[in-house]
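Researcher: Can you fold this with dihydroflavine-adenine dinucleotide in place?
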Amino acid sequence: MLGPALLAAARSDGIRRLVSAAPVTRSVVDRFVAGERLPEAVAVSAGLIGSGLTVTLDHLGEDVTDRAQALRTRDAYLELTEALTRAGFGAAAAGTDGAAELSVKLSAFGQALPGGHDLAHRNVRPVVEAAAAAGIGVTLDMEDHSTTDSTLAVHRALREEFPATGAVVQSCLLRTEEDCHALAAAGARVRLVKGAYREPAAVAHQERRAVDLSYVRCLRVLLAGGGYPMLGTHDPRLIAIARTVAERLGRKPDGYEFQMLYGIREHEQRRLAAEGHRVRVYVPYGTDWYAYFMRRLAERPANLAFFLRSLASR
Ligand code: FDA
């Protein structure tokens, strides 16, 4: 019951101001966010890479409301690409082997503004180009269902020039199994997640079990296909199923990867890596952490209880 309310709150400016100003919020946020500044994100990434993991960095921000803000997103990612290159995290050649990659949300590049589809494509392209030159991959995060067609179309267009560009699909959406067939046939890098947005019954499964079953169907399609599956989940049952299916299909551990969020199931991240799996940690950083943080609270009521206790103990 709390999840939908928190997801609605994630888009409320009033609650954003309240939560962002609460004196203890930062310490709770720190569990999920690597820091507010670029050097902190690079330092956290260096630590993760040093321990045998790989990373995908997200400069936090979404739903920008003007073009200048969209350009600032582009510049922040260009700066991030330079910092990662200086830190030695690019790969020799563009592809899937880099220790670091970028995750971008097209709404932060202007997708929701008038003419937003083309604007977001125009703004994100220089980032993908610079990253490709540095051997750093880029994955387009997926936002709510109203953006799916546009985001997949930008992904297709980018892949014509930069084939390693990744997409994300959400098993909660009714359309996703079909999207997986198309992406797997096209040989794309695809991150499969359950989906973090509140979606209507007309387009999305409403029961957790249905979302999980859809995840299993989708992972079978992706693992059987010609692309590079990136399984974004902390769910131990789904991870076990993915390993079994991959093995049955003859996928080697370097033919797919698991992805998890910074601060969540860190022991499992290290355990899978120690067993020879590729594990990529999604590392968000920046000052605009509110919506991301609220989605993490919505996923797990215990996180909300922890947050409320920390407020009460002041
Ligand atoms: P589930 O929510 O069932 O959690 C399984 C277990 O994981 C829980 O029992 C708990 O132990 C742990 N766990 C999960 N979430 C937790 C939390 N917040 N705090 C503490 N423990 C938690 N979504 C989207 O719509 N678009 C996107 O682009 C992305 N990108 C993305 C990248 C990566 C690398 C990951 C891992 C996830 C995403 N997501 C996403 C989020 C995704 O859709 C989903 O909301 C979360 O991963 C939670 O779902 P799980 O699959 O982990 O299962």
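Model: Folded with dihydroflavine-adenine dinucleotide in place. Strands lie at 54-59, 100-104, 137-140, 166-170, 189-193, 228-232, 257-261, 279-285.
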